[in-house]
Design a protein that fits this description.
Number of strands: 6
Distance between the termini: 11 Å
Largest sheet: 4 strands, antiparallel
Order of helices and strands: EHEEEEHEH
CATH topology: Alpha-Beta Plaits
Strand content: 35-45%
CATH architecture: 2-Layer Sandwich
Helix content: 10-25%
Radius of gyration: 17 Å
Number of domains: 1
Structural class: alpha+beta
CATH class: Alpha Beta
Length: about 110
């Protein structure tokens, strides 16, 4: 079992979801996030003052999958999120020690679905 965490551009969510749904991956959590990497932010003028914006809006996706779905999930995210510009995002893959479905007390890969 793996937890896939992906940071993507918010405007790419529709494309990423479309790719995931094509591959029958429906269980997704998404939260708004702020961060910067190579982009390092940008400067803008607000009421005559120059403001440096270092933290850019990103979307954090969390998807728990069984081992056989890791490559399919990662490839779907990459295909949907890619714009060939700096800031397309990052994907992290972590091991899940245990998963428990609260309603039924199922454990392990059965609980992920």
């Amino acid at each position: 079992m793996k937890l896939i965490i992906a940071y993507i551009k918010p405007e790419q969510l529709g494309e990423v979801k479309k790719e995931l749904f094509k591959n029958q991956i429906y269980r997704i959590s998404a939260t708004n996030a702020l961060g910067c990497g190579r982009q390092r932010g940008y400067s803008e003028n607000y009421r005559g003052n120059e403001i440096e914006v270092n933290l850019l809006k990103k979307l954090r996706l969390e998807i728990a999958v069984n081992d056989e779905y890791v490559d399919i999930t990662v490839n779907s995210i990459m295909k949907g999120a890619k714009t060939d510009h700096i800031g397309d995002g990052k994907i992290f893959i972590l091991n899940i020690e245990e998963c428990i479905r609260v309603r039924t007390n199922e454990r392990g890969s059965v609980a992920i679905g």
